[in-house]
Write a structure and sequence with these properties.
Structural class: alpha+beta
Strand order of the largest sheet: 2-1-3
Number of helices: 4
Order of helices and strands: EEHEHEEHEH
Oligomer: single chain
Strand content: 25-35%
Distance between the termini: 63 Å
Number of domains: 1
């Protein structure tokens, strides 16, 4: 019996909020990374730069239909994880979704949501790779033939 990788993981995201350098600017939000993946020393460095928000128990869910996007993410020079946020009534960001699917993140970006990205930690790369290897089936390339646009009898 073959073990299949889990399709969800509980993630903690770290967001850094710093004051804008411009007097009329809004606060600047930076997605620093996720745990697992950041050592305590890196978290301490991030805390020294501004106000640190740690959002725990975010569900990173994988879907078989999105394996193509996961495959391309893993094949990039630096795989990414995306955090989609929306502002609450007090202009603070709240997490809406965490994903490794660029297409899904881009669709939220098109609707005006704030989308942040960070490097995907090695532990999550291995987990994502196992999922892709278990479920991804590349589509076979089919060479299309041009349709005849003129009638052969009219020659």
């Amino acid at each position: 019996m073959q073990d299949t990788p889990s399709d969800s993981a509980s993630i903690a995201a770290l967001m850094l909020k710093t004051a804008s350098q411009h007097p009329w600017g809004d606060d600047v939000w930076t997605f620093s990374g996720v745990v697992p993946g950041l050592p305590q020393s890196a978290i301490s460095e991030i805390e020294a730069q501004g106000e640190l928000f740690i959002w725990t128990d975010l569900a990173l869910k994988l879907h078989i239909l999105h394996c193509d996007s996961y495959y391309h993410n893993l094949g990039s020079a630096q795989p990414q994880i995306y955090l989609v946020c929306h502002p609450d009534d007090e202009a603070q960001l709240k997490p809406l979704l965490i994903t490794v699917d660029y297409d899904e993140a881009a669709s939220y970006m098109e609707t005006g949501e704030a989308v942040f990205n960070a490097a995907l930690p090695v532990e999550l790369c291995k987990w994502l790779e196992a999922f892709v290897l278990a479920h991804y089936k590349p589509e076979k390339m089919i060479k299309r033939r041009r349709k005849q646009w003129h009638d052969a009898e009219s020659k």
